[in-house]
Amino acid sequence: MLVELFLKKFLEWIEEDIPYVDVTTRLLDDECYEAILLAKSDGVVAGLNILVKVLERFGFEVKQFLRDGEEFSKGTILAKIRGNVRKLLMLERTLLNILSRLCGIARLTRVAVRKARTVNPRIRIAATRKTTPGIRLLEKYAVEVGGGDTHRFGLSDMVLIKDNHLRVLGGVENALKKAKKIKSFSHKIEIEVTSIEDAIRAAELGADIIMLDNMSPREIESVIRELERRGLRRRVIVEASGGINLENIEEYAATGVDIISLGMLTHSAPSCDISLEVVKKCED
C-alpha cells in the first residue's frame, strides 16, 4: 500500500518538475548506464526500501546495499541503479529530494530517542502533525524508522483538546465532559494543560493522556509527584511538549514522563546529503 502511495506521489512530483519536456536530457541518447546513490553525510536510511520498488516500476534494476533503519556514514554507497540514463536523470532530483528528506528525519529521530533513553529507557519520542502537506505519511514513516512514535496521523485518530478548544469550551471540565459524550469507544481523549491544577483535574475527570504544554522540567516533576500522591499516575499517560530540543531532552526525559512529542522531528530535520552519480555505460 505504501509503495502504491509513493508511486502516485512520485508521478505527481515528476509532473511538477517536468511540466512539458526535460529540455536538457534531449541531449542524451536512450542508453543504459550504471549509477550509484552516494552518501555525502551521515544518516539513517528511510524510504529507500520503497524507492527501490518505485524505480523498478520505471524499468530500472536496483541493487540495494542498506535497508531502511540502518545507519550510514559519509562515503557509503546506498544502492546501484542500472537503466535508461535519460529517464534516470529526469528522475534524479525528485528521487534525491525525497530520499534526503526522509533520511534526515530518521537520523534526527534516532538521535533524539537515544539521548532521551539514556535517562529514561521506556520513554517514547513522538512526532506531531507539523508535517509537510502531501507527504505526512512518508515523514511519519521516517520517524518510525528512526525509532520514534508516529502519534496522530490525522484529526480522525483521537480527541486532542488544545488551548483554543479550551478557550471556546470554557475550560478543562466542560471540554472533557463534552468529549466523553461524543467520542467513540475506540478513541482516546488527550488534553493539553499548562498548570498543575488543570493536570490533576484532567486526570480526575478521566482523560487518557495529559499533555503538559511548555512546562519546565521542575513543573513536570511536580505534576507527576502530585498524580502519584493522589493515586492517579497509573491512570494516565503523561506527555511533555513545547520548548524541548536536543540540548534539554534528557532533562525532560528524566522527569518520568511517558512521551515527549517534538515538532522539530518533521519541521526542522536537516536533510541528509545524498547524490546520484553516473558511473559508467552498461557493458551488456
Explain what this protein looks like in three dimensions.
- The chain is an alpha/beta fold and 284 residues long.
- The protein folds into 2 domains: 123 residues, Aldehyde Oxidoreductase, domain 3 (Alpha-Beta Complex), CATH 3.90.1170; 149 residues, TIM Barrel, CATH 3.20.20.70.
- The protein contains 10 helices and 12 strands.
- The chain has a 6-stranded parallel beta sheet with strand order 6-11-10-9-8-7. A 4-stranded antiparallel beta sheet has the order 3-5-1-12, with helices on one face. Strands 2-4 form a two-stranded antiparallel sheet.
- Strand 8, helix 7 and strand 9 form a beta-alpha-beta unit.
Q: Taking Cα atoms only, what radius of gyration do you get, to the nearest Å?
A: 23 Å
CATH architecture group name of the largest domain: Alpha-Beta Barrel
Our measurement of the CA-to-CA distance between the termini, rounded to an integer number of angstroms, reads 34 Å
Q: How would you write the strand order of the largest sheet? A: 6-11-10-9-8-7
CATH class of the largest domain: Alpha Beta
Oligomeric state of shown chains: single chain
Which stretches are poorly predicted, pLDDT < 50 over at least 5 residues?
A: none
- Fraction of helical residues: 40-55%
- Number of continuous helical runs: 10
The average pLDDT value, as a whole number, equals 96
Order of helix and strand elements from N to C terminus = HEEHEEEHEHEHHEHEHEHEHE
Question: What is the molecular shape?
Answer: elongated
Largest sheet: 6 strands, parallel
Number of domains: 2
The CATH topology name of the largest domain reads TIM Barrel
Structural class: alpha/beta
Proportion of residues in extended strands = 15-25%
Give the CATH superfamily of the largest domain. Aldolase class I
Number of strands: 12
